């Protein structure tokens, strides 16, 4: 299992896989004559979305019907105040708890009851957390969008559909045995086996399904699939409508849950979960079997787009963040 993961770059540590991009960033920085040129890409966002970005700040700029209800809380909040915050959402369990300024699925939890909520809040490594209503739509996608400042309409450059981690019974193996055979969650065995909602020793009948991870993060075991074939004029019109609500947003990814694709195209039965800025990857590269050279090609082409947008914005008088303040935020984020 470990050997198989070693030969598939989608499972490599982020820092390792991204080593070639650091050299590409150096070339672009020299060309821009500014190390933090990319922070001029999205004037709407702190650091253009590179680091230390509040999820709620940008979601709250969208129409309420497009986003899940959410409350900001502090990890030191007393239990009584936490109960009041939960009640203010006017929802039932489960709910989502995640860092307001987190990345790559770190400390994102589906909370089943109040005791679990208290525990996760108390033990969080983040000071500011987001308590969010859970969206039960069965499908999720990440749609990467960009628009040059001198253009009225933007385009979609990447569509990633997501398959949540599901175990399938074979009539012979227990849930635990099936879990241990699953490449995508092998690294999370200890945490997953603590979950009491599943009797791990049960042997499910053949064809029985069990959802293991409802959070659509590749790091948590979700399978990412290249969905660019789903792109269309109608979809681009819909994404431009979303982006129009965010003046000063030129590059980023919309993570959306939806009932079905036709409903999404109509602007019905969907919920925007997150908006990412220049830190947004073209996540279709994590499609199983996607070639590593093609992946780097796609990453480099998106880095070039970020550079070009930032240069246009700089010509309009938008200044990148200076290096020292940016590094301060970067270090603070990395050492949480």
Please describe what this structure looks like.
- Helices cover 33% and strands 19% of the residues.
- It is an alpha+beta fold and 336 residues long.
- The protein is globular and about 65 Å long.
- The two termini are 30 Å apart.
- The mean pLDDT is 93.
List keywords for this structure.
Dna Ligase, domain 1; alpha+beta; 336 residues; 19% strand; 11 strands; 5-stranded antiparallel beta sheet; 4-stranded antiparallel beta sheet
In short:
The protein is of the alpha+beta class and 336 residues long. It has helices at residues 2-6, 14-17, 19-32, 55-59, 79-88, 114-122, 175-181, 189-192, 233-244, 261-266, 292-315, 323-334; strands at residues 70-74, 95-99, 109-111, 128-133, 139-146, 155-163, 165-168, 209-213, 223-226, 251-258, 270-276.
Chain-wise SSE layout:
Elements: H1 2-6, H2 14-17, H3 19-32, H4 55-59, E1 70-74, H5 79-88, E2 95-99, E3 109-111, H6 114-122, E4 128-133, E5 139-146, E6 155-163, E7 165-168, H7 175-181, H8 189-192, E8 209-213, E9 223-226, H9 233-244, E10 251-258, H10 261-266, E11 270-276, H11 292-315, H12 323-334
Antiparallel strand pairs: 1-4, 2-3, 2-4, 5-6, 5-10, 6-9, 7-8, 10-11
Helix pairs in contact: 3-11
